[in-house]
Design a protein that fits this description.
single chain, about 150 residues, mainly alpha, two-stranded parallel sheet, 2 strands
Length: about 150
Amino acid sequence: MATENKKAVREAATRLQQKRTEELLAIYAGPMTETEFAAVTRLLKARRVQIPAEHGEVTEDPQAHVQRVITIEELQHAEIGREKRSAGMGPLEWVSVALGILVTIFVWPRSPWVAALMGFGVALGLYGICTFLRRFWREMGTKRGRIEGKDER
């Protein structure tokens, strides 16, 4: 048997759900397709009915295994939401590094190790805070645009 199409099984189960248990057992005993077999089995299990060991002939369901092929024309108009990223340093990174260097220079005469750690910590902390704020600002703008009915992307 081929793999079952879950959507087709759900549709068949919805269609057969109104039938009584005796009618389902009669369908189970007669010839049926793979989709009907899976749907009837699911319904009988849901009703906690003892499923008989013998069942009717199960044939392959050609309609259940049809796959839709996507054409190039459909893909041509699809939106791709990848955000462009550069590997270089932007203004956010430069500000963080510059402030870290300034802190290091001012604290250096007291203790070089503490100055280096403080400069690195300040640069890393400022970068993390600014990155969070930028992401929050962008998300806030897109949510506001969706609420007003505008699409800003």
